[in-house]
Amino acid sequence: MDSRVQMWSDTTAVHFSDGAISMRPNLSFSSLRSRNLRWIAAVFVVLISSAMAYAQGTFTRISDIQYVPGGSNAQKLDLYIPDGATSTTPLIVWVHGGGWVGGDKALAMNAFQLRYARDGYAMASLNYRLSSEATFPAQIYDCKAAIRWLRANAAQYNIDVTRIGVWGSSAGGHLVSLLGTSNDVIDLEGPLGTNLQPSSRVHAVVDWYGPTDFLQMDKQAIGQGCAGSNHNSATSAESMLVGCPIQTCPTAVQRANPMTYATTDDPPFLIQHGTVDCTVPTGQSQIFQTLLQSIGHDYSINLLTGAGHGGPEFSAAANLLIVDAFFETKLRQSVNPMINSVRVYRKTAEVPHFRAGSIGSLYRIVLTGPNIAADSKVLINGIARGGALTGAGELTVRGPAGRIEQSGEISIQVRSTLG
Asked: What is the torsional sign of CA 255, 256, 260, 266?
């Protein structure tokens, strides 16, 4: 990553969701890693100690939960809840790969994904309709329905709805990337399930070698020296997913590409890809990196030298420590003290939350914190908004542009040279 690129990194993200205000850290793992290797080494030491402390951690598995009542047999998830939690726990959702034509949510008890259930996270692993049953956007509809179900039932399972991460490989990497970039994209939300009000927004994404732009895959594979690439064929996994030979239906393909929807208010990404992957060429992650860097997004990328499409390099202890550090930073660390309090006013009256569908410009937001300064910059839903600092150290900014989303959720990012 080019450290000269301006990053909205050392910030606090404040989310208003379901009528409540919550804050969570929004530190750029990539920028911290590039600037301060000692800090990352310290995190690794902490995580190793934590893993030892939780080595005997136990969890309860709840299998085959139907997240779309009365729906397809594929629309089920398994839930792993850590035993003995005394407060709400972050959630990590695993989405399997298999070219959208195969794969399953089932995880062996020694699966590396379940390290998190033993370490105090809630875990979910979900199935979704494969392309033989339904073409796109059925798959992302299912994933979003599952997130909404988990959020709607969070109290029953002690899940923190403000700290939801997603992680997937290959086709699953594509779907979790799409979950991340299509936050609040109504076209991909879908009508599934009985929990249509909760948001499907997620807060951290780990993408293992997922496709990001189908139309470039054959060209990239050839450039990488891979023989026999056939993503453009009518029977390729990508063509089967969208329901047409991909080069004949670019609009349908664009709808399925995670890169189509990337904006600055998307959650942070950790992208990992093998350098000799001839199934999903490495260039798919590299062009995604270029896009995220161009918009100043919070991301980190690791290219695993000599690794192909998956393999032991990804589940190796050293690599899982990188994943551990990412989730620890994005989902479980205490909030950066940039913002101490948030007050929302609609016209002149203070209100507890934003009203879904109302005009954002009717609101003003007052922020306080030890590092608020005259040069503090504010993004609301990824868009820069003007602000004024008062003598009392309060920063007042205008509300979001346009109307408040039906989810009732907005994000605020603040950056200052003091924090």
From this structure: positive
The DSSP 8-state label assigned to residue 209 in this structure reads S
Q: C-alpha 197: how far from its chain's center?
A: 19
For range 43-58, the mean pLDDT: 43
Determine if the pTM surpasses 0.85: no
- Token readout for 112 is 């590396």
- Which amino acid is located at 403 in the chain? R
**Sequence-separated (6 or more) residues with CB below 8 Å from residue 180:** 166, 202, 205, 207, 258, 266, 267, 269
- With vertex at residue 305, the alpha carbon angle to CA 298 and CA 308, rounded to the nearest 5 degrees, is 95
Q: What is the Cα–Cα distance from 142 to 193, expressed in whole angstroms?
A: 9
* pLDDT interval class at 408 (50, 70, 90): low
When pLDDT is cut at 50, 70 and 90, the band that residue 19 belongs to is very low
Q: What's the pLDDT at 228?
A: 86
> Closest by alpha carbon to 91, among 28, 34, 8, 167?
167
